[in-house]
């Protein structure tokens, strides 16, 4: 669940960042994909850490 939330949050933040910097639609999609993957990866490690601690 944390991974999916990270993916969605990262995609939203990435798209907003690209559009704020003056990028076009494809720039926003690329940023959304990059941020989404990064946030999902952080969420995965966070999930593994929580699972190991409990």
Keywords:
54 residues, mainly alpha, 2 helices, rod-shaped
Helix coverage percent of residues?
over 70%
Q: Flag low-confidence runs.
A: none
Strand content: under 5%
Tell me about the largest β-sheet.
Answer: none
**How many domains in all?**
1
Give a description of the structure:
With 54 residues, the protein is mainly alpha-helical. It has one domain (2-53). Helices cover 89% and strands 0% of the residues. The chain has 2 helices and no strands. α1 packs antiparallel against α2. It is rod-shaped and about 45 Å long. The model has no long low-confidence stretch (mean pLDDT 97).
Short description:
The protein is mainly α and 54 residues long. The chain is 89% helix and 0% strand. It has one domain.
List the helices and strands and how they pair.
Blueprint lengths: L1 H19 L4 H29 L1
Helix pairs in contact: 1-2
